[in-house]
From TrEMBL:
Its cofactor is Na(+). The chain crosses the membrane at residues 12-32. It is a single-pass membrane protein. Heterotrimer of an alpha, a beta and a gamma subunit. Keywords: Cell membrane, Ion transport, Membrane, Sodium, Sodium transport, Translocase, Transmembrane, Transmembrane helix, Transport. InterPro entries: Na_pump_deCOase (IPR005899), OadG (IPR023424). This is Probable oxaloacetate decarboxylase gamma chain. One of its GO terms (biological process) is sodium ion export across plasma membrane. It comes from Allochromatium palmeri. The lineage of its organism: Bacteria, Pseudomonadati, Pseudomonadota, Gammaproteobacteria, Chromatiales. Catalyzes the decarboxylation of oxaloacetate coupled to Na(+) translocation.
Length: 82
C-alpha cells in the first residue's frame, strides 16, 4: 500500500466514525425531546401558588461574645500558614 491510499483509508475511517457518533447524538437528542413532550402531555407541570407571608423571622439582634470569639479563631486558623 502506498502512503496516499493509507492516508485516504484512514481519513475515510475517521469520517465514518465521526458520522456514526454524530448520528447517535442526534438520535439521542431526538429521543430525549420526544420523551420530554410525552411526559409533559401525560403529566402536566403543576403551577406553584405563591405563598403570601407577611411575617418573616426576625434576625437575632444580640451578638454573643462566644460566637464572635469562635468566628475570630476560625478565621485566624484559616489564615495561618500551612
Amino acid at each position: 500500500m502506498t502512503d496516499s491510499t493509507l492516508l485516504f483509508e484512514s481519513f475515510m475511517l475517521m469520517l465514518i466514525g465521526m458520522g456514526i457518533v454524530f448520528s447517535f447524538l442526534l438520535l439521542l437528542v431526538g429521543i430525549l425531546r420526544l420523551m420530554s413532550a410525552l411526559i409533559l402531555r401525560l403529566a402536566p407541570a403543576e403551577e406553584l401558588q405563591p405563598v403570601a407571608s407577611s411575617t418573616t423571622a426576625p434576625l437575632p439582634t444580640d451578638t454573643s461574645e462566644d460566637l464572635i470569639a469562635v468566628i475570630s479563631a476560625a478565621i485566624a486558623r484559616y489564615r495561618a500558614p500551612r
